[in-house]
Amino acid sequence: MNKEYYTVEQISNMLDIHPKTIQRYIREGRLRASKVGKSWRINGHDLSVFIESDSNKELNTEKQSVRSALASSVIDIAVYGKEDAIRIMNTLSGALNSKPHEYGQSSMQSQYIECENMIRVTLWGDIRFMAVMMDTISILIEQRKE
Predict the structure, then answer these.
(1) How many angstroms separate the Cα of 30 from the Cα of each of 22, 105, 134?
(2) N or C: more exposed end of the chain, with fewer CB within 10 A?
(3) Please, which residues bridge with residue 36 across strands?
(4) C-alpha gyration radius of the chain
(5) Could you read off the pLDDT of 26-79 as tens digits, one per residue?
(6) What is the mean pLDDT of the chain?
(7) Structural domains of the chain, ranges and CATH numbers in brackets
(8) DSSP 29-87
(9) What values do phi and psi take at 104, rounded to 5?
């Protein structure tokens, strides 16, 4: 019996998903694979099982989010000290963690730059997510002025 095997790159092209996402699925055990040297090989049956599985419902959501409008931004926010910086960063983290699933994948990194009394926030994600985060930052800044 001749089994057909695929590489991570081939599956990435077939499913229109980034190769690192395929590798993550392998690490998480959601996609069965065999290690050959330094690369992974996935047989056709395991690929079919993966595509048809219920645990893979977000695959279509990811593909939709990739095809929608994505944005990135770096925002520098002046703060009044470490406590103010922590309050703002915690609020933004809360907003990120409570975002609706429809907004797809997103990420935020924040850094307090003490010598400049500033927070540098880097955002990436769906344009609706970005709008909500920008509004949140705007509200936080306005609240400090009052």
Answers:
(1) 9, 18, 35
(2) N
(3) 39
(4) 21
(5) 888 888 898 888 889 999 888 888 888 755 555 555 554 445 788 999 999 999
(6) 85
(7) 5-66 (1.10.1660.10), 69-145 (3.30.70)
(8) TSS--EEETTEEEEEHHHHHHHHH-GGGTHHHHHHHHHHS-EEEEEEEEE-SSHHHHHH
(9) 70, -160
Give the pair of three-digit tokens for residue 143: 């609240």
**What is the pLDDT, as a whole number, of residue 16?**
85
Look at the block and give the residue holding tokens 């509004």.
135
Task: Work out the end-to-end distance of the chain between its first and last CA atoms, rounded to an integer number of angstroms.
Answer: 74
Q: Which two tokens stand for residue 29?
A: 């055990």
Instruction: Bin 37: left if φ > 0, else alpha if -120 < ψ < 50, else beta.
Output: left
* Element (DSSP H or E) covering residue 28: helix 19-28
Under DSSP, the state recorded for 100 is -
Indicate the helix (H) or strand (E) that contains 118. Answer: strand 118-126
